[in-house]
User: Fold this.
Amino acid sequence: MNVVTTKKELIKHIHEYKTKQKSIGFVPTMGYLHEGHIKLLEEARKVNDIVVLSIFVNPLQFGPNEDFDSYPRNPKRDEELARQAGADLLFLPSVTEMYPEKPSYTVTVLSRVNVLCGKSREGHFDGVATVLTKLFNLIKPDRAYFGMKDAQQVAVVDGLIQEFHFPIELVPVATVREEDGLAKSSRNVYLSELERKQAPAIYRSLLAAKEKIAHGERDKEKIKTTISLTISKETDGMIDYVEILSYPGLEEINSICGKIIIAVAVKFTKARLIDNITIEV
Ligand code: PAF
Assistant:
């Protein structure tokens, strides 16, 4: 596996792959790799000649009061995991390598952002779209891999690829979970021992909602209440949102039909956890 930190070196490798007509699968991450990321690398490995992984904690997608400085980082361990997972090229740029001192351009996302995490994280998806535009232009992948845990991100990237005409296939990959159902996340390390025990109730509440829908429940508010009650009863976390929307459009729905997402965010002492399920009704 080659490890590069500059655009210049990256471009040299990409040029070589393209000259040899190799297909490129791209896994963008912010590092502190866990099994969710490894699954993305494995999926990319299956169908592409070359697998490129980027690790970049992108300051532009963090709000002023968010955890940019304390976001967990472990580049040496990540490098080892990436090698084991069969990545061919690891791109590890610095902030100055990705952004000029005074940027003149950013990408603004106009739809799918005023709901779910976008509502409480103003500008977050602009930051995601901006860095991905840069990375897509540098890496020129045939396929890009994203985890469904961040379903809103998948929906936003879907729009970005379509509207900016990137010749890239978006590959959404199912959420990887701990044995007790908790979605894998780099932020799980922030949970206290007790919170870690409570956190699987989030996924259980989503499964209970799915079950209700399967048994014919179509009242959105009743389903949201069931989820909220389970989470409040079984955890000390504070519910940030419980939403049921169309997917991938992320629009309000009056009745439960078609492809929908049920998504929740819960704030614990030091970690805000998100989870979701998408279902076809
Ligand atoms: O999902 C993430 O880790 C980030 O939002 C991404 C896609 C790498 C962009 O910085």
Residues 28-30, 58, 61, 128, 131-132, 150, 153 surround pantoate (CB under 6 Å).
